[in-house]
Amino acid sequence: MAEWERLTTGKPAALMSPPGAGEIESKLAGLTGCERVLLGPSTLHLFWDLFGMLGARDVNLFLDAGAYPIARWGVERAAARGRPVRVFPRHDARALEEAVAASGGRPPVVVADGFCPGCGTAAPLRAYLECVEKRGGLVVFDDTQALGIFGQSPGIWAPYGSGGGGSLRLAGIGCRAPVVLVSSMAKAFGAPLALLGGGARLVGQFERDSATRMHCSPPSAAAIGAAAHALDSNGRWGDFWRWRLAQRVSSLRRGLACFGLLGARGLFPVQPLHLPANVSAAKVHRRLIDCGVRTVLHRGNPGDARISLVITACHRFSEIDHAVECLAEAVDREPQAARKGAKGNGKPIAAFRKSDPGRLWEFGGDGV
After folding, report:
1. Residue 335: what pLDDT?
2. Among the four 61, 266, 305, 351, which has the fewest Cβ within 10 Å?
3. Residue 55: its pLDDT value, please?
């Protein structure tokens, strides 16, 4: 990272843009396909301001049921200002069309995530746009999961696509589309700040009306330096690292498939597990920690916790093999009755490992 003289300017962004922010914003606009981008300290700051602005308009809000909580908090702010909010099933463009048609003549604002890690699918942004464009509406989406991973023109040598520009690049949506992209850079790019992108006119209005740009601290020089380093690395090596990442995720998926534990489609690096019925996710999580394997334990309804594995391009294949073997052993320790319905109709999972010795899940092609 480049050096800096001061961690902060001591001034809000409304009075003075942090040094280096303008260059990062310009690069992000080119990367994501937006006309203009503004930086912010977090997606919470950006969604708070954005929905405060939209809440002052005469619009109807339509919330994709799979939207991330921070976007929902912004929608709640607009709802508190009297804007009607309707929730439609995740990624269901037909249900959205029906809800919009039945809602009256106000312009619709659709709120969604660009990509859903839990189901391994991208939101149908083009279908959402077709629904709102003819009614003078807007699509607002959180692209935190996709930015830095997905890009344009996926293929066998670039399973995620090239560039890492996120959902707009993946869907081939132009910069003049009525969309607002809000994304953290803390996932694929590892930089603790966020961005808001879209048409130049709307972003300019956001810049003028933003309350957090006046009353909150802007991103620090360290965060901007981290973003600059990440974008430079992405331009030099990003497609290579994404290719490495796809290899490792494919290796994990092959291992999970051998034991009937594969829980989602696609090569996204957050891979939820499909545990056999009545197997305790919390117990499996604790057993994996004892093996040196850290997993993400998702809170759900009582008795409905879930586990995900997160893969990075720096993981070694031996580490992935170790994680899969520990997982199989952790599940195999559950009572026999708890595993009914798993691969083999209750047959101990370890038996599948023993029946096919050696490395079971070498990467080849585009994986499972």
Report:
1. 62
2. 351
3. 94
**Running DSSP on this structure, what letter comes out for residue 108?**
E
**3-state helix vs strand vs coil in the chain, percent to 5:** 40, 15, 45
Collapsing DSSP to helix, strand or coil, 294 comes out as: coil
Rounded Cα–Cα distance for residues 131 and 313 (Å): 37
Q: Residues near 22 by Cβ (< 8 Å), separated by ≥ 6? A: none
Q: What is the token pair recorded at 61?
A: 């809000």
DSSP state of 210: -
225, 21 Cβ separation under 8 angstroms: no
- For tokens 């029906």, name the residue: 98
Distance of CA 263 to the CA centre of its chain: 17
Tell me which architecture the domain covering 21-219 has in CATH.
Answer: 3-Layer(aba) Sandwich (3.40)
pTM of the full predicted structure?
0.88
pLDDT, one tens digit per residue, over 253-293 is 999 999 999 988 899 999 999 998 889 999 999 999 999 99
| Token pair 């396909």 in the structure block, residue | 33
For 108, phi then psi, to 5°, come to: -90, 140
How far is Cα 68 from Cα 43, in angstroms, rounded to an integer?
11
Name the 3-class secondary structure at 314.
coil
* Mean pLDDT, residues 290-309 taken together: 85
Model confidence pLDDT, tens digit, residues 142-188: 999 999 999 999 999 999 999 999 999 999 998 889 999 999 999 99
The single-letter DSSP state of residue 189 is S
Alpha-helix residue ranges (DSSP H) falling in 134-280? 167-171, 200-209, 212-215, 221-258
**Residue 6 in contact with residue 20, Cβ under 8 Å?**
no
CA distance 162 to 169: 9
Q: What angle do CA 202, 117, 366 make, to 5 degrees?
A: 110
Domain ranges of the chain: 21-219, 238-354
pLDDT score for 360:
35
The CATH architecture assigned to 238-354 reads Alpha-Beta Complex (3.90)
Same fold, 21-219 and 238-354: no
User: pLDDT-derived band of residue 347, with 50, 70 and 90 as boundaries?
Assistant: very low
With 0-12 CB in 10 A as exposed, 13-18 as middle and 19+ as buried, what is 279?
A: buried
Sequence-separated (6 or more) residues with CB below 8 Å from residue 104: 60
